[in-house]
C-alpha cells in the first residue's frame, strides 16, 4: 500500500511531515511512501529511506494561492504531482497538510470522483465525550460544498457508512441527519425529503434526525448534513470548546485556586481535556467520494498527527474502502439515477 | 408600560412565573402586569396585587400541543388571551415560558407582523467570553423559520440593529453575516448576495462575514443568519459548552485534584462558569419583526429569569423599539420592495 505525500504543505513542512512519515513507516510495515517535495529541502531531512522514495517536485502551492488556478498552473507542485501519482495508479492514497482548497481541487480534478457521486463530501471525525461505548463520530459534509442538494446528502449517508465501517470498526453505524429538531417532520422541505428517503433505505441504519446539541453526546456514529450547516456546526463546536477551556482555566487561576493548587497540578488536567477534544488524534479530514483516499490535515500539523493520519489511511486501504464505494455506486446506478430525479 | 404575561407556560408555572412577576414589579416601578391564567391556581399565589391584574384564562396550551391548531382552537388559553391583549392595545408586550411553537404562532397570527417584514426572526442573546469591552452578542434567526430567503436575512440586520441599540445600549452595533469564511466571496450565491447588499447599506455598521468559531470571542454585536443555520449553530454552542463543563469537572474530580481541593472549593468556580454561559441572565428570546415585543423564555424558567426578562422588555418598551422598527420599514418601503425583487 503506497501513499503519495505532499512534503511541502503545512506550517511545519517539510520538517514535521518528513518526521511523521518516518514514524508511520516504522509503525506500519506494509506502508510505502512517495514523498513529493523540493529535493534540496527534503533530502537532508530523511534519516532512513526504507520504504520512502523521494520524488522531486520543484514548485510549491502556498497557503494563500487561489486553489483552482494554482492546481491548473503549478504542474510541478508537490500537490499536483502527488495527486497525479494516485490517478496513474502509482500510489493508492494522497496526503497533504497544505492549502485546503488546492488539496480538494486536486482531489476532484486529478484523482477524480467515483462514478455516480456528484459531490464528494469533506468528512471529519469528532470526539464523543464521556460515553463508555463510543469515543467518536464522523460528520460530512463539513464544507467541501457551500451549495448542497438533498440528493448529495443522501449519498453522504452511504459514503459515511463505508467510512465508519473502515475506520471506526462499527459494523452497522447509526446514521443521523442534522436537523433543527428530532421529530421526523422537522426542517424545511429539503430536510423532510432527505429524512424520508434515508428512512426508506434498507442498506443503512438510519436513526432519524439529530440536533447539533447532542453530537458530542454521541447521538449518531455518522452525521450527514449540507456543507454550509456542517461547516457552521463544526466551527461552533471548535470555537466553543476553546472558549470554555480558556474560561474555566481563567476562573480557576483568578479564583485563587490556581495559587493553592499550583499550575503544575492543574496542567495535566487541562492536557487531558485538550487531548479529549483534539480530533487530530483521529487523523485528517477525508474528501469522501473520490476514487482513492484524499486526506487533508490542519496546517499546524506536526509529526504525531502525520503518523495518526497514516494509520487512518492504512485502515481505509486495508479494508479497500474506496473499492467498496465504487462497487456500491456501480451496483446501485439505476436507483441513484432515480433518486437524483426525485431529490433535485 | 403594561406586559401581558402567560402565567401557565413553563415547567414551573404558575408558581415561578407569579413569583418572578412580583420580583419584576418590585424592581420596575413603571411596569404593570396583566397575568393570564387559571384563576383558582394563580390567585392563591399572588401575595400583593399592586400593579398586577389577574385575567382569568381557563384553557391551557400544553407543551406537547400542536402549535397552530392549539392557537386556533384554544381561544380561552392564557397564550391566546395574552397575545390578544397586545393586539387590542390593552398591553404593550407579551411574555411566555410556554410552548415555543404556540408562542411564535400567537405572535405571528395575533400580535402580527410589522408591515414590510416578511419573516420575523427569533433573536437570542449569547455571552462573549473574556473580552473586556463586550459581554454579549445577539443572533437571529435562531429557528423561527426553517426556510429563509436572502431578503429576510437582510431585514434581520436592520431588526437586530434596533434591538442591540435598545437592549445592549450600543449606538452603532457591529453587524456580521454568519458564513463559512470571512472573505467577502465566501458561501453560496445567496450568501454572497446578502453580503454585498449589507455592505452597500448606509444605515448599518456591517463588518462582513463572521465564522461560528469566533462568535463567543465577540466577532460582532449582531450576527444574522438563516433560521436553519442559526438553530444548528446555537445548539452546537449550547451542547459543546455543557459537554466541556462536564468533561473538565470530571477530569478534575477523577484526577485526584477534587479530593485535594474539596468539592466546596471548586463549586464557586463552576458556578461562575455556568453563570458566564447562562444566557437567561440576558432575558428571553424575542421574536423580532412583530408590532410589539413577544418574548419567550426556556421551559425551565424560574422566577429570577422571569425578572431578568421583564427588565429586557422594559428596555424594549422604554426605548420604543417596536415603533422605531415600524417607522424604519414605513420610511423604507420602496427600498425594501426593490430589495425583495432583487434578493429572491
Features:
homodimer, 344 residues, alpha/beta, Isopropylmalate Dehydrogenase, eleven-stranded mixed sheet, 13 helices, 15% strand, globular
Overview of the molecule:
The structure is a homodimer of 344-residue chains. Chain A has 344 residues and is an alpha/beta fold. Chain A has two domains: 1-117 and 289-327, Isopropylmalate Dehydrogenase (3-Layer(aba) Sandwich), CATH 3.40.718.10; 118-285, Isopropylmalate Dehydrogenase, CATH 3.40.718. Chain A contains 13 helices and eleven strands. Chain A has an eleven-stranded mixed beta sheet, sandwiched between helices. In chain A, strand 5 and strand 6 form a beta hairpin. In chain A, helix 4 (78-87) packs parallel to helix 5. The longest helix of chain A is centred in the last third of the chain and has 28 residues, at 227-254. Chain A is globular. The model of chain A has no long low-confidence stretch (mean pLDDT 94). The interface between A and B is large, with 54 and 54 residues. Chains A, B: Homodimer. Probably interacts with PlsY.
